[in-house]
Automatic annotation (TrEMBL):
<dbReference type="InterPro" id="IPR011037">
    <property type="entry name" value="Pyrv_Knase-like_insert_dom_sf"/>
</dbReference>
<feature type="region of interest" description="Disordered">
    <location>
        <begin position="162"/>
        <end position="181"/>
    </location>
</feature>
<dbReference type="InterPro" id="IPR052716">
    <property type="entry name" value="MOSC_domain"/>
</dbReference>
<dbReference type="Pfam" id="PF03473">
    <property type="entry name" value="MOSC"/>
</dbReference>
<feature type="compositionally biased region" description="Pro residues">
    <location>
        <begin position="169"/>
        <end position="181"/>
    </location>
</feature>
<feature type="domain" description="MOSC">
    <location>
        <begin position="14"/>
        <end position="169"/>
    </location>
</feature>
<protein>
    <submittedName>
        <fullName>MOSC domain-containing protein</fullName>
    </submittedName>
</protein>
<dbReference type="InterPro" id="IPR005302">
    <property type="entry name" value="MoCF_Sase_C"/>
</dbReference>
Length: 181
């Protein structure tokens, strides 16, 4: 069963949250048209100061709607766009995807998953204590768990709307687990 786009968001200015839109247009090799993070090179405000010429592996931020339900059970009210994502998904195990997985959205758009979003301290400015719920260390393995979604680059542009289907195409094996980008 295919996943689904729950919401689409973009913002022309740097801010933590992104407003909902009826649709967004993905531009091949750039990101979301009109979004502050679109571009061939890094557009993350902090990272631009010391790595301005690196390729932008964070053109599109996707987050799973199921995280919002999990956070609600812990007393945090969060909805689509509030944590800065461009596309909120439903029914796709984003965090379980391998690096290089392709996401076919709607009729045309294709994203390539590049890695995990590295949650920043601004999450606690948005909701005090929230960072601890989206970023945790596994006491048994000592490894960190990042729950704030995945980052992707646009391989084929197109318009994406809420309720569009999402088809996952895994890369050829061997699969590489997602790492922070």
């Amino acid at each position: 069963m295919p996943g689904q786009v729950a919401a689409v968001c973009r913002n022309e200015e740097y801010s933590f949250s992104k407003p909902h839109r009826d649709s967004i247009r993905l531009l091949t090799g750039l990101g979301v048209e009109g979004d502050v993070h679109a571009g061939e090179t890094i557009r993350h405000q902090f990272r631009m100061t010391y790595e301005p010429d690196l390729p932008n592996l964070r053109q599109v931020h996707l987050m799973h709607e199921e995280l919002f339900h999990e956070l609600a059970l812990k007393g945090f009210e969060v909805s689509a766009g509030q944590l800065g994502e461009n596309i909120t998904t439903r029914g796709v195990d984003l965090l379980g995807l391998p690096t290089g997985a392709l996401l076919h959205l709607g009729e045309q758009a294709v994203l390539e998953v590049t890695g995990l979003r590295n949650p920043c301290a601004k999450i606690n400015d948005f909701r005090k204590g929230l960072l601890g719920e989206v970023f945790a260390m596994d006491p048994l393995s000592g490894e960190f768990t990042f729950k704030c979604g995945v980052m992707a680059v646009v391989r084929r542009g197109g318009t994406v709307r809420p309720d569009d289907a999402i088809q996952v195409e895994p890369p050829p094996p061997p699969y590489r687990p997602l790492e922070r980008v």
